[in-house]
Amino acid sequence: MQNYFLPNPQYIFDTRGRIRLKLLESLKHLVFDVFGPRFTPPITDQALNDLIVGGRAFPNAVIFALHGVLLKAALSENTTDVPKALEILKDIANRSTGQPDQFSVQPLAGDLLHPDDVYLLKYAFADDLGLTTSLVAPASEVTEQCKLLVTEALETLGQTAPDWMEELQLLTNQIYFAVADTDAQQLFGGASVFDAFGAVLINPLGLKDLPRTLMSLVHESSHQQMFVYHLDDEIVLNDASASFTSPLRKQPRPMEGIFHAMWVSARMAVAAQAVLNSPNRPTWSEELREHQTRAIRAFRDCEDTVAEHAKLTDLGSILFSNSKGAVDAI
């Protein structure tokens, strides 16, 4: 039986091919069928084919974010953002829209990114809690310091746990720094959404050292891995309006969020162990143990709540079992 927990770069690579075709199918439906009768399509069917599947490179996160704008408009029946999204689609085909070959680490800022890309990515990362709805670029000195931390953390992962590194690159090789435009800039640590597949948002104010940076990258990429599993399966069947508490987190939250937290906590703990077990582990690797201990504690907390209250699909039950087995084996 396939283990869905441990890194499997080939599975993610193959799944990306399916994601690409699903993205094309959904964009065609939105542009030509849903909005075509009201807004003149800004692109031909062939041009849209070329944009999504015509090149060698996998579509970057901006294309997913553009799709997200149109999908949200269709589901909400609010077309306010549609004209701008279609105008961007008209122009975007004339510039590079493929995922970078290597990791891209940069601030979410208009002076380094195309303004349309900034708009789309901010739209994708905006959340209902208001933590990431007003994002700005961090100070340049913060950006440069954290780019060095991310680069070294990625190099460490590549040297100590190459399978984790290869999978992470397939899941999210676009890393954007941003802070909230509020007095409470450290309220969020990062964000991952399928509407920006291939990218993660990280608050650089939380990247204090290499162990924390490495764990943050594993955390956010593991959310993206779970989004992959959600493509064809609900995973969690609990009513979305139902919420649950746990000993470590008294604030109620939906089972979907608890399951995600359980999964990424387990992945952080096991990834830390992979680094610690490597003969190439860095001198600072022992500092990962504190992060690993906290991750295991968070996993156990979520595990109890999931075991007692979750209604899972067959795949969800396998994922639960896989994560528990991986943590138990540490």
From TrEMBL:
InterPro entries: AKG_HExxH. This is HEXXH motif-containing protein. It comes from Sulfitobacter guttiformis.
